[in-house]
Design brief:
The protein is of the alpha/beta class and about 210 residues long. It has helices at about 1-25, 30-40, 55-65, 80-90, 110-120, 130-150, 195-210, and strands at about 45-50, 70, 95-105, 150-155, 165-170, 170-175, 190. It is globular and about 40 Å long.
Length: about 210
């Protein structure tokens, strides 16, 4: 009976918040709705973004507050942009370690080539071998960062190239890459520490890290 009442009440509140968001063009009712439904369902979603690129401002703020950071990503272009610049500076007041996993540009398993073929359907400028060149450039960038900041570690993985995961001690950003589009145009979900998805993504990263090549 209690679960039924909670379900009815949450549905009513969800409807009210959705209507309010439509009237006023506000984003906070949608976030409050997500938190409410997440708590009722136990999923743990704190925020959602229609595109990964829309999360960059919030991501930068969460990285500044992080005690540690773990990143598994595709090409890694975002690692060279503004959202990560403070992470690479030595003397970050809280940050203890940053671990980065990038695809191995040698691509022995063919996973990178498979992803390249998917994205090429939407972007004809993605020629064979281009992603490997971009990854190699980002590896050079992060290697230079790591020589100046010993809290930064980089490893390479050879596995399906189908998501971006950024985890801190508080949050996990998860972008499942859609077919036929760039990762930046794929939806992004944020899960809180202690939620089942946060725990799963952390376990996924740690397993890939152990298997990764130095």
């Amino acid at each position: 009976m209690q679960e039924l009442v909670i379900g009815v009440v949450s549905s009513l509140i969800a409807t009210a918040l959705t209507v309010a968001a439509g009237w006023f063009g506000l984003s906070w009712p949608r976030r409050l709705l997500l938190r409410l439904l997440s708590r009722v369902s136990g999923v743990g979603v704190l925020r959602s973004y229609p595109k990964q690129s829309a999360a960059n401002a919030d991501l930068a703020a969460d990285l500044r507050a992080a005690r540690w950071i773990k990143v598994m990503t595709g090409r890694g272009n975002e690692l060279t942009r503004d959202s990560f610049q403070e992470v690479w500076r030595r003397g970050h007041p809280r940050l203890e370690s940053t671990r980065i996993l990038l695809p191995d540009p040698a691509d022995a398993g063919g996973w990178l080539r498979a992803r390249e073929e998917e994205v090429r359907r939407a972007d004809p400028g993605i020629e064979p071998g281009l992603m490997a060149k971009q990854i190699s450039a980002n590896i050079d960038y992060l290697t230079a960062v790591a020589t100046r900041n010993d809290s930064v570690e980089l490893r390479l993985f050879d596995a399906p190239h189908n998501c971006r995961v950024i985890i801190t001690d508080r949050l996990a950003y998860f972008t499942p890459y859609l077919q036929d589009t760039h990762g930046r145009n794929s939806p992004c979900l944020v899960f809180g520490n202690g939620s089942p998805m946060y725990d799963y993504l952390l376990r996924l990263f740690d397993g890939m890290w152990q298997a990764g090549a130095r």
